[in-house]
Here is the input.
Amino acid sequence: MTADPAVPAGPLTGPATPGESPETMRTRVAALLGRSRDRSTALTALDDGELAAQHSPLMSPLVWDLAHIGSMEELWLVRDVGGREPLRPEIDGLYDAFQHSRSSRVELPLLTPAEARGYVAEVRDKALDALHRSPLRGRRLEAEGFAFGMIVQHEQQHDETMLATHQLRSGGPVLDAAPPPRPAGAVDPAAEVLVPAGPFEMGTSAEPWALDNERPAHVVDLPAFRIDVHPVTNGAFAAFVDAGGYDDPRLWTDAGWAHRTEEGLVAPRFWSRDSDGTWWRRRFGVVERVPDDEPVVHVSFHEAQAYARWVGKRLPTEAEWEKAARHDPATGRSRRFPWGDDEPRAEHANLGQRHLQPAPVGSYPAGASALGVQQMVGDVWEWCDSGWHPYPGFSVFPYPEYSEVFFGGDYAVLRGGSFGTDPAAIRATFRNWDHPIRRQIFAGFRLVRDAGV
Ligand SMILES: [Fe+2]
Here is the structure.
């Protein structure tokens, strides 16, 4: 049997590939929409009281996320691509993220869980109809399935947000997943690699589902630097805590120290120490010992920076992170993912909520970048020492509220996705951003230093 060259090898788990046929694209989109809905359903399999409750002022009630997922899908796939009349125009404002802060959404006359489930199912039927009617060519919103890819990513992004709400919820565990893999051999958590000086291509003009902020591709020239092969581990971070890192203002920036003092921070969020000095953490309702060899998670940008100063290193800039992830010195080109251009498979990265925690460092050697840097995609989002800015030549598409309105604000960039991020919602060009004080997200970090140091 010969393989159809238009159909990429693998289970169509990732974002659309450049040059993909409309037939393959349709199969891919339908599979990805189904997978994201299965996940949204699992994350909202709680009783009505829990779904309507506000588990943290940082988060929306889960039932808001669910109907908002449907509202965005209706707006772009049913009304715009499908050309249909609004299904429930009276609820548009309730689910507009710009009209209501997360902390105020619990006060709104939201759809009940049963109504929200009915609404998202009705929207999905019509979105699938639009998928079968669209040529997936022609106008920019439909070419290469962009609008469908945007909505797949949007639902998956809310699934990660809902996972963070689950982590903030009190009470016993309701989610379950297999433990992550372990490394096959010995791992040196302090290993570094040299990233040679020179230009590389940052961003993309070719990735079909890349969002506006990832575009266009442009050349960036960097001096040589050394980057950690692995993200900073819990064990390494605990040494910083135990050495009094949270009590030494010299290690913190002014903004970081002010925040640490105001909030009384003493350790990563969800950590606690018992009387004999052992660190414990609460993870989705389970209290367990903090595993030394996993990447640290639930630390803010400020905590990452203080740790970096303590060990005499620094956070990478966004360009340094992307060069270490994508640059192939043998060919001079930039890859779609650290391991190459193939879409993510289970052996490459800890993605997609398959495991509800980061994997120990060294668990994904098959996912290493050309330069030998590991776990850049999956496990934990990685804080970068870069603000949120457009690339040269940026243009808004398809709407300013996706990225543009946030440019220049009080944000730091995060890269690489986490164990909670779906394979279809990540690539090595993907850019995320958040306030430097945030700790509820699945974020950790790795460090760099100048090559001469
Ligand atoms: Fe949204």
Observations:
- The CA atoms of residues 89 and 337 lie 40 Å apart.
